[in-house]
Design goal:
Keywords: 2Fe-2S, Iron, Iron-sulfur, Metal-binding, Oxidoreductase. InterPro entries: 2Fe-2S-bd, 2Fe-2S-bd_dom_sf, 2Fe-2S_ferredoxin-like_sf, 2Fe-2S_ferredoxin-type, 2Fe2S_fd_BS, Beta-grasp_dom_sf, Diverse_Oxidoreductases. Pfam families: Fer2, Fer2_2. It contains 5 helices and 5 strands. Strands 2-1-5-3-4 form a 5-stranded mixed sheet, with helices on both faces. 35% of the residues lie in helices and 15% in strands. Strand 3 and strand 4 (56-59) form a beta hairpin. It is globular and about 50 Å long. It has helices at 24-31, 87-95, 104-117, 123-129, 141-162; strands spanning 3-9, 12-18, 50-53, 56-59, 72-74. The chain has 2 domains: 3-78, Beta-grasp domain (Ubiquitin-like (UB roll), Roll), CATH 3.10.20; 87-162, DNA polymerase, domain 1.
């Protein structure tokens, strides 16, 4: 029997009738058309289905929608802001961190969570944060470099926000 639930995804509310055994991954992709979240192993081993649940990376293939009704869910579709790519998306593209792109959404969301928690991670901290996301194409080096570059970009943006505007100074 289907149950009507409300999910908060990428800042929007969705009412969805779900069967109790369906996973969040299935609901995102099949019911809501949010296909950026990838269907990988269904065993919680690859990280392709990673989404953020209240800012924390979780595997949507192991998560039941009934359990997350009171949470904010962020998918890859929710990263862009005001029509602009997130700095991580920009650096992934610029540095060639994505090859086939299948692991990229989960990798990006795990990296976003890391940079929100730790704006200046070391290479080892980046490796640890992304350890649940498997990539078969890149060898990870470009991915780590892209996360480091995004951390620098975000830090520079924060510094710019704190600097008084020189044009406004007497």
């Amino acid at each position: 029997m289907r149950e009507l639930i409300t999910l908060r995804i990428n800042g929007e509310r969705y009412e969805v009738a779900v069967l109790p055994h369906r996973t969040l991954l299935e609901v995102l992709r099949e019911d809501l058309g949010l296909t950026g979240t990838k269907h990988g192993c269904e065993l919680g081993e690859c990280g392709a289905c990673t989404v953020l649940l209240d800012g924390v990376p979780v595997l949507s293939c192991l998560t039941l929608p009934l359990e997350v009704q009171d949470c904010e869910i962020t998918t890859i579709e929710g990263l862009e802001e005001q029509g602009r790519l997130h700095p991580l998306q920009e650096t992934f593209a610029e540095l060639g961190a994505a090859q086939c792109g299948y692991c990229t959404p989960g990798m990006l969301l795990s990296a976003v969570a890391l940079l929100r928690q730790n704006p200046h991670p070391t290479r080892e901290e980046i490796k640890q944060a992304l350890s649940g996301n498997l990539c078969r194409c890149t060898g990870y080096t470009k991915i780590y470099e892209a996360v480091e570059a995004a951390a620098e970009r975000l830090s520079a943006a924060r510094q710019g926000e704190r600097q008084p505007n020189a044009a406004l100074q007497p």
